[in-house]
Amino acid sequence: MIRPLRIGTRGSALALWQARHVEALIKSQPGSPPVELVRIRTEGDLRTDTPLWRIGGRAFFTKEIDNALLSNAIDIAVHSLKDLATVLESGIELVAALAREDPRDAVVSRSRMRLADLPPGARVGTSSLRRRAFIARARPDLELLELRGNVPTRIEKLGKGDYDAIILAAAGLLRLGLEQHISELLPVEEFPPAVSQGAIGVCTRTGDAETGRWLRKLDDRGSRLATTAERALLRRLEGGCQVPLGAIGELQGDLLRLHAAVCSLDGSKVLRAAGQAPATPHNAVSLGQRLAEDLLSEGADRLIATQRATLGLAVEGP
């Protein structure tokens, strides 16, 4: 009897969609082994009463799944790549970055209004420091409120009248067939998305060639190069905590382009950097690091430190 490949996943509707998508891609390959899903609860699932930015580090949706991978309880870990720490646990390899869904943020409003048309004082929900900062820059007259829960829960809270609008990743709405709720897709020039937003990351134990051979074929070159550059930039800037940073990479022919911005939480100050490089894995890392240095030279480290102090978070150097 062939031992099945065990995919570790969170139990949310979106996480299960992602895991089943990977399952289907594996099963579509001739001679593939059976696959089973293993649901794992993470710290981020349990601590629903705490703003994400107050939970230390960045592994609150991935740590328990990665631990299961390292302990051989599962063979494959499937994550939203934006949730995956930029420094992986020793013994874990990111073997595939799947083709990216729309990376933009989406406005979902009760009145189907665009962000610019919401009335002054409208209540807008988001769990992201980045979204809070760039919304505050565009519409300082709005009331920004915390928003937790999975995608359907967030839409339900909007329907109950807890918020006038909420901001979600377009990718999650599209994957769950909820695109009818989208009032507006925010332009990446003004609202750069979270690093790796819209991409699915697939991890295995380092050296697990048997599992890896079914997954490496799933790696999308454009998604891998763009997210590699974005993650290299974030790794240089973050210092182990969420920061009000947006970045978007794009493969255009033989060139990889990257745009990034850091914004103060009140929206009063924004630092931007952009660049391009020949599209290779080495250049993707170098491009991300170069733009991070450009932002640091403009004072991004001081801006980030000020925001952390304002929030009462530990100030760490990048």
Description:
The protein is α/β, with parallel strands linked by helices. Helix content is 33%, strand content 22%. The protein is built from ten helices and 13 strands. It has helices at 13-27, 43-46, 63-70, 129-138, 151-159, 170-175, 209-215, 221-238, 281-297, 300-311, and strands spanning 5-9, 35-39, 76-80, 92-97, 105-109, 123-125, 143-145, 165-169, 184-185, 200-205, 245-252, 255-263, 270-278. The longest helix has 18 residues, at 221-238. The model is unreliable at 314-318 (pLDDT under 50).
According to DSSP, the number of beta strands is 13
Decide which structural class fits the backbone. Answer: alpha/beta
CATH architecture of the largest domain: 3-Layer(aba) Sandwich
Identify the strand order in the major beta sheet.
Answer: 2-1-3-10-4
Reading the helices and strands in chain order gives EHEHHEEEEHEHEHEEHHEEEHH
* CATH level 1 class label of the largest domain: Alpha Beta
Q: Tell me the name of the CATH homologous superfamily of the largest domain.
A: Periplasmic binding protein-like II
Strand percentage lies at 15-25%
By DSSP (H or I, 4+ residues per run), the number of helices equals 10
- Rg value: 19 Å
Mean pLDDT: 91
Overall geometry: globular
* Structural domain count: 3
Helix % is 25-40%
Any descriptors?
single chain; five-stranded mixed β-sheet; D-Maltodextrin-Binding Protein, domain 2; Double Stranded RNA Binding Domain; 33% helix; alpha/beta
Show the helix and strand layout.
Blueprint: E1 5-9, H1 13-27, E2 35-39, H2 43-46, H3 63-70, E3 76-80, E4 92-97, E5 105-109, E6 123-125, H4 129-138, E7 143-145, H5 151-159, E8 165-169, H6 170-175, E9 184-185, E10 200-205, H7 209-215, H8 221-238, E11 245-252, E12 255-263, E13 270-278, H9 281-297, H10 300-311
Helix pairs in contact: 8-9
